[in-house]
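Reopening this one. Same input as before:
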Amino acid sequence: MRITQRDVAREAGVSQTVVSDVLHDRARGRVSPETRQRILDAAKRLAYHPNATAQALRLGQSRQVAYVTSRTDIDNFSALAEEVVSGLASAFAERHLRVVIDVAGSYLQIPERLHELVASGVCDSGIVRVFEEKEALWSALKQLEIPLVVIGQCPDPELISIAHDVPGIIRAAETYLAERGHTRIAMLSGQRRSQYFLLVEASWREGLARLGLSDQWTAEAADRDAAEALMNDWLRAADGPTAIVCLNEHVALGATRAVVRGGLRVGKDVELVVIGSTTHSWLYEPGTLLFGTDLAGIGRRAAEALLSSVAGQSTPGPVRVLPELIRL
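Same output, byte for byte:
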């Protein structure tokens, strides 16, 4: 039976994370000399050797990278249909690497699926795609002895993660509108109470408070028709919002339809800011402001980060990308 870091941790009486840090020489002074020596002695007694498959990508053996997401994220966020997949697949293909897609039943099964792919020799490293913050998942991922990158809002500084700068996007949208004299700013989102939405909502309310503005026009809409109906109510109100930030394509199209059918002009009578993919920019009226989130670019950044990690050239921690605000 192969001896693992878990066995060394049990023998030395410490956590697996501490063992991994010591054996990979990244303890950075956080482990006492006595504990470090105890771990090294335990590894020697047990005849521990690093997982050979964890080093395979360095040697160019399997030439395959795992892309693991969950059934929940496929159902709720179309994790396999998004442009992230094409971006990372293209980046890996340019280096003659293949992407192996695997679906875990839940978030907490992702590390197990990733471990199985590596232990069997199918893959040497992994990309993990998640849409929720899960502390237990981060802890489990750190225990794996393979190079990996998380695509998603992972706050753990010991993991490499790539995602859009959600708080930064919200702050930039609010600041832009406030600087142009808007004091009644609305946010229109879909009806999905995910961790991502809660992060957006917290950033939104914090930004408005900083600017001294009211958050009374923060609302949700189930679909395009609901967004249009809500927008109609706002447009009819004498003290309704003059600028609306839309968090997805569906509510943005509903809001746009209400403005156009009301005989108003986007960018003149009502300011519309959309946070969404650049691929869908053709859907919107001229004058719409777009924070064009480049999902394919996020995929490419993740691929590059993983390859840098394999080569020992990357620094763990979150990488957050702030897209440019453009007027269509």
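So the earlier flakiness isn't reproducible anymore. For the record, Residues 52-60 have pLDDT under 50 and may be disordered.
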